Amino acid sequence: MKLSFSAEDEAFRAEISGWMADHLTGPFARLKNRGGPGDEHAFFEERRAWERHMGKAGWIGVGWPTSAGGRGAPLSHQVIFYEEYARAGGPGRVGHIGEGLAGPTIVAFGSEDQKRRFLPGILSGDDLWCQGYSEPNAGSDLANVRTRARLVGDRWVIDGQKVWTSLAHVSDWCFVIARTEDGSSGHRGLSYLLVPMNQKGITVRPIQQMTGTSEFNEVFFDGAETAAENIVGKPGEGWKVAMGTLAFERGASTLGQQMAFRNQLDEIIAIAKANGRAKDPVMRQRLAEAWIGLQIMRANALRMLSQAGNPELPREAYVSKLYWATWHRDLGKLAMDVLGPEADVFPGEPGTYELTALQQLFLFTRSDTIYAGTNEIQRNIIAERALGMPREARA
């Protein structure tokens, strides 16, 4: 596992940190540290303009191969990019699903025509994507998907429902897992379709969260259509492609997420020192444990990334979601305990429902151990896939 960086790496760090310092200014200055989890509604159009600004400068697709229009940056540079972006207070990325999931999936599994058609719009920051995986009865259990698609002439016709679809209300495209083989069940008979969102056969309904915002959505497909060629891989290969997409979630961007966590922890520690709670031995121990937990998280991520290219998912990857979700949820509670009575005070005019950044942190992190696979499901995955234990009994 590589824990240090070369002189070349540090030169790249200076390049990206300098670019952020020069460009996250003027009309973009107010975007610093905005638009993250629980704050997705903030300055959306300005953040979309920032996405295009990054695209023009070539900062989208840093790790994509040059043949796909990316920079072809080595893994160490990718880690540095995401860390420095978060360190500089870069705003929440409106195009992260396209850059981090849809794009790499098309690069790995898509046809040459699909690469030519879809990748440029992601790299320029013009096209936004969402993920059509979870359903009311297939959240953590993706193999239970019931959304169906049938090939009619030169079009796939889709009927079904997806839920917890982040950014569906602003997305141009959605990659959808649908059942395309009658009578199939489980992992078999699924296909991976690229579906335009702006059509009459799709209805998006926002789901309001505890933060008062509605990043998540329900998406209903009622005869929605996409061209026959907008299938990634062959019919019935949807599970393989979908698992490839999920593997990209464990990429270098996890280090950027952890740097954002570090920013949050630093703010909490500063408040604890200012209001005197850091003098309490129990609170001081909790702050220290949070700091130690974050170092463990980073070391495990680097260990996981050091095995990039291994066809078998390393065990370190299996524990990642369970670990960071639980740690971050606990950080939200720690923030409220550090704030004390101030945690219950809402700023702004009487009657308004506004939240501070740490209040947003607490409320949003209640969902961390639920979305993208609940903690219970994560433990099953670790037991069955990483440790080879017997499968849980199914009713």
Description:
There is one protein chain. The chain is α+β, with helices and mostly antiparallel strands and 395 residues long. It has three domains: 7-94, Orthogonal Bundle (Butyryl-Coa Dehydrogenase, subunit A, domain 1); 129-236, Butyryl-CoA Dehydrogenase, subunit A, domain 2 (Beta Barrel), CATH 2.40.110.10; 250-386, Butyryl-CoA Dehydrogenase, subunit A, domain 3 (Up-down Bundle). The protein has eleven helices and eight strands. It has a four-stranded mixed β-sheet with strand order 1-4-5-8. The chain has a four-stranded antiparallel β-sheet with strand order 2-3-7-6, with no helix packed on it. A hairpin with a 2-residue loop joins strand 2 (148-152) and strand 3 (155-162). The relative contact order is 0.10. GO terms for molecular function: flavin adenine dinucleotide binding; oxidoreductase activity, acting on the CH-CH group of donors.
Features:
395 residues; alpha+beta; Butyryl-CoA Dehydrogenase, subunit A, domain 2; Butyryl-CoA Dehydrogenase, subunit A, domain 3; 11 helices; 44% helix; globular; Mycobact_Acyl-CoA_DH; Acyl-CoA_Oxase/DH_mid-dom; flavin adenine dinucleotide binding; AcylCo_DH-like_C; Acyl-CoA dehydrogenase
